[in-house]
Amino acid sequence: MSAYQYFEIISMAVLVAILIFDLLIVVKRPHVPSMREATGWVVFYVSLALLFAGVLLVMGDAKHAGEFVTGWLLEYSLSIDNLFVFIIILAQFQVPRAMQQRVLMIGILIAIVLRGIFIVVGVQIIEQFSWVFYIFGGYLVYVAWQQAFNAEDDEEERKDNFVVRMLRKRINLTDTWDGGKTRTTIDGVRYFTPFLMVIIALGTTDLLFAIDSIPAIFSVTTDPFLVFACNIFALMGLRQLYFLLGGLLDRLVYLHFGIAAILGFIGIKLVFHAMEANELSFINGGESIEWVPHIETWHSLVVIVASMAIATIASLMKGRGEKGAESYTDEDAS
């Protein structure tokens, strides 16, 4: 085996071990993490991702290192959008604060498994049909438009996904929590608790997000190992990020524009890639379209960082301006 293959095996084993350790902590000691604890875990996972890229670089694989960093930042940026939906879901099911870590952790583990399946299928499709990049690209441009101009409506639609609505109609469900149990007995009747429903909601909702993010990551790399690694690193720190950011998310009013810009750029990049590798006979006679500009990995990295930075700074500036205006109004009234 090559050094890269050994690296794949070892890194996956380490990541699985960390996930198991993290899960055991959450299951055995359910609690509301402090800001210090949440910050520590976020820093740990970010450092781990950078170490992962650093090892690739030391191995002399600068190409894969660059692709990983870009892909990881892309998935991390898009995963922040997940947090808004997580807040809605946890509030909807009235998840007790002490149980939120466990619920999020299990939901994320389900999402990792489902994304893994999605990635394997996606890679196979891409290898067989390069024209699928036209579809991926067009879809991401559409999603970018929706994200920019229909964000509030989209958020409302995600409150209950199809799977949750279907289960609500077919099973006995109580709104009463019974610790971490998925089933409980009330007056002699067995009911499923919200614990089961919220996990299903988190896992399946994240899979819907994967329909956006997986095609996006394919614009950076089609290496299944790197695609999966980018997703794992993005998802692993999501639970701690939920507790760390908390109310700050409500202040990021322009975040959806930043995400829309990223998705739009990635969508265009995928279409350009499809045009470069064109095999469709009714487009340019099945030949590659040579005038299409080639977008490098570092171009994507710059767009991702710039979009998120501008959206965040603009949001915070707006919040500060509104707060200042309120203070001025209060002083004027007094």
Automatic annotation (TrEMBL):
Pfam families: TerC. InterPro entries: Integral_membrane_TerC, Integral_membrane_TerC_rswitch. GO terms for cellular component: membrane. The chain crosses the membrane at residues 6-27, 39-60, 72-91, 103-125, 131-149, 191-218, 224-245, 252-272, 298-317. It comes from Ornithinicoccus hortensis. Belongs to the TerC family. Coiled coil: none annotated. It comes from the Bacteria. It is a multi-pass membrane protein. This is Tellurite resistance protein TerC. Keywords: Membrane, Transmembrane, Transmembrane helix. It is found in: Membrane.
